[in-house]
Fold this protein.
Amino acid sequence: MRQHKDSCGIAGMFNVTDAAHKIYLSLHALQHRGQESAGIVTSVFDEAGGRKVMPSHKGPGLVLDVFADASIFETTLFGTSGIGHNRYSTSGASNNATNIQPFRVHYRDGNLALAHNGNISNAREIRNSFIERGTLFSSTSDSELILHLIAQSTRRKQIDKIVDAVSQLEGAFSLVILTDNELIAVRDPNGFRPLALGRLDGPAGSDTGYCVASETCAFDLIGAKYVRDIEPGEVLVIDDNGCATENFHSIHLARNHGVSQCVFEYVYFSRPDSKIFGEMVDKVRRKLGKELAHDAPVPSVPDDAERPIVISVPDSSNTATLGYVSECEKLGNRCRYEIGLIRNHYVGRTFIAPGQAAREQRVRTKFNTVAGVLKDRIVVMVDDSIVRGTTARQLVRMVRAAGAREVHFRVSSPPVVSPCFYGMDFPTHDELLANRFDGDIEAMATWLEVDTLAYLTIDGMMRAVRAANESKLGYCDACFSKNYPVPVEHMTMKDENEW
């Protein structure tokens, strides 16, 4: 449900006309990955100063709000290269302006800017080592640690310093790094978070530009062509030589824990029109829905009875629901897809809802029922996941209030039983619905006030992912299985006072 919160979105451009505006559009496409803040940094030659500079604009809020003044692109964000970031905080206080990315510094090798999607699991150890050396910090974000590792590296070349820095990190990190002459894309050796390379073909006779983004939906909005994924553990250097020859320099980090791409990106986080980990999200979600139909079909009814209706909890479960309905019908379980819940897309995260009554009102501002569809019907609700369950229960109550005769709940992923330490912000272990009831499905169904509750199994989920995606690379399912592929420091690092 909506209680888990999105990881960040990152984008970068190199040798692209009007780079900042295209980054802005990319961030707009990636808005679902973070709504707390947004920022863009570009690289430009300052003729008056005779050197490269990196102008920046960032602030709290949605992309449309942060860049509401269009003159920013004409007066500040010049250049043909730049990076951008949408933030949802998994590390560092969300209300601290110093945590808004991209981070930008000037050091002995020139200018450097960085945007990070993920969570560094050994951040406390790294930070403590810096504190002992007297290092000063300007933020509470684990992303700042990467800048210090680069600046204090003893390697001679800048790219070697960057490789040295990221080699010391554990956990999840997809990065875009902007230098005075390069755009560098980095994906951690486990490949937890998605990151893709695209190409922007300019007018005839002009040079080809390249772009990097968390998801390919960003490419669609700016007319870029998907080239390939940044590989797990790859450090890809995009520079003038590479653009001219279409042959970029790549360095590969050591893989100490194998590859474990986040399966929750397919379940919930990524947009269905994106291609991540080598496959379209829509295709994988439909497979998840079909597997769910085998594990937990719709209730059986007599041939002369009205068919149950199946509704999705919009929007992330829409395509899984379509797969579920089609497979139920194929298996002989009569049902019909209907739109029974409508989502209001204009409710922002700034809506203040203190107290239980206000929280319930907030759900009503985001969702409404279609009473004519639900009245006197057997209703099967399909959602992508349940975390705390508070929103699910409120939606069930709304569906019953609209006149549903029965309400059954189906979930196109397994029960969430563990927090994530690789860039997804789940609640603590004890707050998760499945843990509050020790995995007792019937007890959870009673609390949710549904007639029946059923989940997709872990095996079913992985069958769906592997059936849809030909990639042989591994996946992380720690939030469902408690099997963490990389050692973690068991803290969320959300409170800046913890530092």
Observations:
- Residues 9-276 form a domain with the Glutamine Phosphoribosylpyrophosphate, subunit 1, domain 1 fold (CATH 3.60.20.10).
- The chain is about 30% helix and 25% strand.
- Confidence is low (pLDDT under 50) at residues 1-6, 349-354, 490-499.
- The chain has two domains: 9-276, 279-470.
